[in-house]
Each structure stands twice: as C-alpha cells, then as structure tokens.
Specification:
mainly beta, twelve-stranded mixed sheet, 5% helix, flat, Right-handed parallel beta-helix repeat-containing protein
Length: 351
C-alpha cells in the first residue's frame, strides 16, 4: 500500500514500457483506411446496412463501418471477427451512438397499490430507470427506494408511487466483443448494459485502438482486456459499472485521458498485466480506486480520489463480489514494478 506523495516524487522500481503503436503508426493506420470502403449503418433504413452485425460480417482490411448519427441505440452485439492489417485497420466510426445490451422492461401490471413485472432474464442483472442505474443496496439487497425483488428473484416489484415507464434490463453477455482479432480502431462509441463487460477483449490481438469511448452500466467491467491482448485507449469514460476498468492475464495497455468514476466496486484494477497510464482520473468508486497486483505499470498525471464513505454501499458481482472496501486510494503489492510519477492521492487512511 503506497502512501500519498507530491507530484514530483518518482518511482523507479521498473523500466519505461514501450510495446504498442507509436502515435505516428496509429495515425498512419487510421489515415490509410480511406483506401477501403465506407460501410454505412442506419437501423432506421436508407443505408447499405441496417444492423451492426451485417456490416461487421462484410468488413475487411481498410474498411470503415460508419454508424449514422442519431440512428441509435443499437440493441445488439458489435463483434467484428475479421482482422485488419498493418496500414489498413478496420475502423468503427461510432459518431457517439450507443450499442447496448439493455432491452426495455415491459409487461408491468398493477398489483394492489404498486406495479409488478415478470423478469425476462435470470438474476443478477443491471436495471436502469430513466437512464440511471438502480443499484442494489448492500444491506437490504433491494433496489434502493424504487423496487425490490420477489423472494424467488423472478419478479420485480415497484414500490408504491414508482412509475412503470422507462425501465430497462441488461440481457446480452457482451456489447462490444473483441476476440482474437488485430488492427481495429473503435472511435466515438458508447457501450452499455452488458451482463459481462461493455468492452470485452479476449484471446490474441494487437493494434487494437479505442478513441473517445464510454463503457457504462454493465454487470462486470466497462472495459476489460485479457490474455495476450495489446490495446490502446485514448479518451475514455467508464462509470456506473460493477467495476470500471480491469485488465488481467498478460494483457498490455497504453491509456490516456481516462475518467473512471462512480462504479459500484473497483475503479481501476491491474492484475498480472502491463500498462502505461497518462492523464487518468479515478474517483468515487465504491470499493477501491486503484489496485495493482503483480503488474508492470508506468504512470504520469494520474489522480485517485477516495469517496466520502468507508463502508460497502452496493452489491457487486463477479470479481469484486464480497470484497471489502480499500482504506487507501492506491493499493499495490511488492510483486509489482512501477515507474513514472506517483499518482496524486486524495483521502484515505494514509493521508
């Protein structure tokens, strides 16, 4: 566990990491994609493709999948199974549109002075009301002051006075699924409502770039890289998930300009992996802000802010289930090698 220091304190336990694309290489890949096709997607009609699945299946090196502005949300999984190649990546231009695992929760009926609804998926899941996640209270195990589960967990019972309108429930395991592919760029894309991770990277892959993305309201992570994956994330917001960003198992990441905030469990967790972090803010996450275990990390301009509470407030599942809140904004172990400038740490027992 590291105690806070000033921004000039240096950590020299490791060596700087250089293992993915340089900026010039990335720009070259992005610009060269103009030689490919532009695959227009608009679920409203009038474009070559009405679904992401169709466009993804048709895509190849150098192609750009362009999602029409204002055409979302896309209630499907975005998975491109083809790889691009050096100088000709497959590019997804999201134009700020949403790919989501959520479906509207329908079929409410009046029961006494409140509404009830049979649930279409097994528990656990993520619920939102009017676009905001409704988290489970750690003590009562119920959904705050809005709803509760029946004893058999097959029915949602709204509390008296709560509207049955504008409820959504997570139904898809993944939203943006990146498995065993290389040379992809995902730009200006939002992903939510996964039963697992919003952005899920698995297998063997390199030159995977994410620019200005959001991963939120998912039952596991907003972003997670596993296995032999090398990726870059430049501009990202990960919030309202069980955990914000968790990388494990030999994955490698270069990341800049990230906000990881308001997740129910962990904010940023690096386990058995490598990462270069620059301009990263981690704050107000429920159980821990930054945790590093058996990893090689270089960081600069990183800030971790403890929340105003010390106890567990919400129920989480998967990796952070049953874990206790951290007492400091940064927790690391002796096996990890860190270099760069010590993160700015705000709050916690060591301050």
């Amino acid at each position: 566990m590291l105690s806070p220091g000033n921004d000039d304190e240096r950590l020299n336990f490791g060596v700087p990491l250089v293992f993915i694309l340089s900026s010039s290489e990335e720009e070259s890949e992005a610009s060269s994609s103009a030689a490919g096709r532009v695959l227009e997607v608009d679920r409203r009609g009038g474009a070559e493709f009405a679904s992401l699945r169709e466009a993804a299946k048709a895509s190849g090196p150098g192609d750009v999948i362009r999602i029409a502005p204002g055409s979302g949300p896309y209630r499907e999984v975005l998975e491109i199974t083809n790889s691009g190649r050096a100088g000709a990546p497959i590019v997804v231009e999201g134009n700020g549109e949403l790919v989501t695992g959520f479906e509207p929760l329908e079929g409410f009926r009046k029961s006494g002075d409140a509404y009830v609804c049979d649930l279409p998926v097994e528990f656990p899941f993520v619920l939102t009301h009017k676009g905001e996640r409704v988290a489970q209270d750690a003590e009562t195990k119920q959904f705050g002051e809005l709803a509760k589960l029946s004893e058999d967990q097959r029915q949602l019972q709204l509390l008296p006075g709560v509207s049955p309108e504008s409820w959504e429930i997570s139904t898809r395991t993944y939203v943006v699924k990146v498995w065993n592919v290389s040379h992809h760029i995902y730009r200006d894309l939002r992903a939510s409502g996964a039963q697992n991770d919003a952005f899920n990277l698995h297998g063997v892959g390199e030159h995977l770039v994410f620019e200005n993305v959001e991963g939120f309201h998912s039952l596991d992570e907003g972003f997670s890289a596993h296995d032999d994956i090398s990726c870059e994330v430049h501009g990202g917001e990960f919030y309202g998930n069980d955990n914000g960003l968790v990388n494990i198992a030999d994955s490698k990441m270069v990341a800049s300009n990230l906000e990881i905030r308001g997740n129910l469990g962990w904010g940023l967790y690096l386990l058995d992996c490598e990462a270069v972090l620059d301009d990263v803010l981690v704050e107000e996450n429920g159980l821990a802000q930054i945790m590093v275990a058996n990893s090689v990390v270089e960081w600069n301009h990183v800030t971790a802010v403890m929340p105003s509470w010390n106890d567990r407030r919400w129920v989480t599942y998967n990796e952070s289930s049953g874990k206790e809140p951290a007492k400091a904004p940064l927790v690391t172990d002796r096996r990890s090698q860190v270099s760069g400038t010590l993160p700015k740490l705000v709050g916690g027992s060591d301050e």
